[in-house]
Amino acid sequence: MIATRKSWKTQPPAAMTEIPYSASFSDAEYEQIRDGRVPRSGEDRWFAFFEDGTLFIHQASTGFCAFMVAFESTKGSCVATGASTQLDLEGWSHRQLDSVVELVDSLIRGLLLR
Prior knowledge:
Strand content: 25-35%
């Protein structure tokens, strides 16, 4: 099942803060990322859909848009060129920010590229 904005109840993104995320993916991985993910049970924590070159990752229980990741397709691969979050990162240490970037990467790789 390919996830769309209408596949799950979501809240629209509000003020977003950029985070330093970049990664490369193969064409096959990009295809999986674009499929997104609809929660299958009440225990699933995340809903993700792809629209206009952007992956939106929402908390399933609240519909809160936690992350947005921008992608650019190139020949044979695609690149995540940046990300943003609704989390208020003001005053966060570099180490805490690294944890947020790691979470985005683990959601993409663990949730969408299962």
